[in-house]
Amino acid sequence: MDKKDANYCRLVGMRLRAARMEHNWSREELEYRSGVSYNHIGKIERGEAHPKLKTFHLLLKALGINSNQFLQSVEKELNEQFPIKEK
To answer: Quick one: CA torsion of 21, 23, 28, 29, rounded to 10 degrees?
Structure first.
């Protein structure tokens, strides 16, 4: 995994954790609402796991987050950190 991929995982995890905290939910609460296991949520939030699309969708739906807006904001931040170099 290259540096951009690693940062992508960490950034997605940080954003999901921040959204969970805005709801004042524990990981157990998010597990209950999404059906995604407590341990897997922790790994995703720490950037240690790449969620499958279905898992990602379940988490965002439980948190009430629009997936397009979420991914666009993550992509924008990554492009600021890792600008595309012209050849």
So the answer is: 180
Instruction: Report d(CA 70, CA 30) in Å as an integer.
Output: 18
What is the tens place of the pLDDT at every residue in 6-20? Answer: 788 889 999 999 999
pLDDT at 4 > cutoff 70: no
Class of domain 3-77: mainly alpha
Q: Does position 32 have pLDDT exceeding 90, yes or no? A: yes
CA 24 – CA 50 distance, rounded (Å)? 24
Sign of CA dihedral 83, 20, 24, 42: negative
